[in-house]
Specification:
Layout (H helix, E strand, L loop, with lengths): L4 H21 L8 H27 L2 H13 L9 H10 L2 H22 L3 H22 L11
The structure holds heme C.
Protein name: Cytochrome c
InterPro entries: Cyt_c/b562
Organism: Kineobactrum salinum
Length: 154
Amino acid sequence: MIFTSKRFFAIGALCLSCLAQAASAQDVTAELPPEVRSLLQKEMLQIDAAMKVIHGSIVRGEHEVVEKQGKAIHDSFILQQSITPEGRKALKNAVPEGFLQLDQGFHALAAQLSDSGGREDTAAQLKIFGQLTQACVTCHSRYVSERFDGLDAQ
Ligand code: HEC
């Protein structure tokens, strides 16, 4: 017999680890109802656009724009706006606790950035902008690793 039980076991163990890898590469949002997922994607595009405007405003010393756009990111926080209560529930159920925590941290940073705009504090804006960018990369690399497969887990 070529396939001794030991070999079977080894092959089984190998397959399990393949499955685990395939599962971890799947985006956390892949199983969401399509309308919830599409709202989340829209929010992300808005955040992306706001980050670009903020970057330009920091380097030009346009503090009031930093304040306004930081607040816009804060307010467009995916779990608070536009998503219906049912959609929010689906999202909360679909994503792991770590995702929600990252989202909350991200939310708080956007508020801090807005405040630093209000204080006309360029040094703080630079620091917080970097932290926000780190938060994008952390969440994408952990939870959107299929779409954004160029990011190593951070
Ligand atoms: C807490 C997690 C989390 C954080 C923080 C986060 N994102 Fe995302 N982002 C996602 C998820 C999940 C998707 C994938 C949505 C999908 O395709 O289902 C995504 C997708 C995107 C997309 C693609 C949108 C599309 O469908 O075309 C952009 C752009 C984006 N994010 C920008 C950003 C930027 C910029 C930041 C930081 C300022 C950021 N994200 C922070 C979770 C996050």
